[in-house]
Design brief:
single chain; alpha+beta; four-stranded antiparallel β-sheet; 4 strands
Length: 155
């Protein structure tokens, strides 16, 4: 089954990568006919969005091509999570919020740090410590990383 899935991905991954003409659209639909309707819709919607706004970055496309060829689904998921973590970029003005002991805590991203409760901090972990009195991973505390262990919040 994995071999069939890889073949499917190889055949349908790009769907041409270019703006198909009306005849090309029909042939794309016919190549998708064996797929469930929701997947057909998702693929065509993605293709339209990519035509309008641009496709995947080459680095992401290369990453996906490499892992499809030789990885198990579990290792693919772990690598995607790690890849996604490396892509997180907080821009100045972003507001991070978290409810703690019934109170909503908000930290604002500023150039070179964060603001919380009128004080500037160098890290989210310092803010999490100030809020809880316990050492936390700041990104985990504010939900930028996996934030539950067995369904419960934990430091």
């Amino acid at each position: 089954m994995a071999e069939a899935s890889r073949g499917e991905l190889a055949r349908h991954r790009d769907l041409g990568g270019r703006r198909p003409q009306s005849r090309g659209r029909r042939s794309s639909w016919s190549t998708l006919a064996h797929l469930p309707k929701h997947l057909q819709t998702a693929i065509v919607s993605y293709r339209r969005q990519a035509d309008q706004s641009g496709d995947l970055d080459p680095a992401i496309r290369q990453f996906l091509d490499r892992i499809v060829e030789k990885e198990t689904p579990e290792s693919v998921m772990a690598k995607l999570v790690a890849f996604d973590r490396g892509q997180v970029e907080l821009k100045a003005g972003t507001i991070l919020s978290r409810e703690w002991n019934g109170t909503t805590q908000r930290a604002i991203v500023v150039d070179g740090g964060f603001l919380w409760d009128g004080t500037r901090y160098d890290s989210l972990s310092a803010i999490a410590f100030a809020i809880t009195g316990t050492r936390w991973s700041g990104p985990r505390f504010f939900g930028l990383r996996d934030n539950t262990v067995g369904g419960e919040d934990a430091p």
